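Appendix C reproduces, verbatim, an entry submitted by the partner laboratory led by Prof. M.T., so that reviewers can inspect both the input and the predicted structure.
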Amino acid sequence: FMLDCPLEMIIDAHAQVNRLEAWKPLIDVMPEFEIVGDNNDYLAIADGFNRCIDRWAEKMPKFKKGEIGKSQMLVDEFVNLSDKEECQDEAAEFSKHSLSDPRKAGEYVLCITQINTLTRTGNKGGTAKARNTQTIEVLRKSANGETPLPNVTVNGLPDENGDMNEFEATIPSWVRPYRDWE
């Protein structure tokens, strides 16, 4: 996946489609992770968010003692989840916890969203500074509004002085969410 560590979970309201396309390569190489949210199951997504928070709390002492290694998880189209009544409270709590707990538990969290608004982070107020200093944003560009181009703008990676910078980059051709990826 993105990092050299196991994938714990994908939370995705469209998993029934993405299992066959975007997540297929991950399923092929790491079949043991959990996928939550098929067919817009927002109650399952709410439960998944709660389980993530619980998992991080359980993993913190184990990670600190070196008993477990790093892992990762992914939330697809997070912006839509904070608007769904069945999971909006859990999305807000997940967002708040995701800014500190996963780091202490050795877990990386990737949240995919199409827009940079408060909604993309669960509508949780009071977290702006943490979001701006503890998240990395990759802004994909498109010439036609549908097909992503390989050129991106990246925000949130610190330089050697700890200052956050914005820079242009190109995503390698092997990083693409298509079925033909091998």
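The beta strands are 7-11, 34-36, 71-75, 107-111, 137-142, 148-158, 164-170. Additional entries are available on request from the coordinating office.
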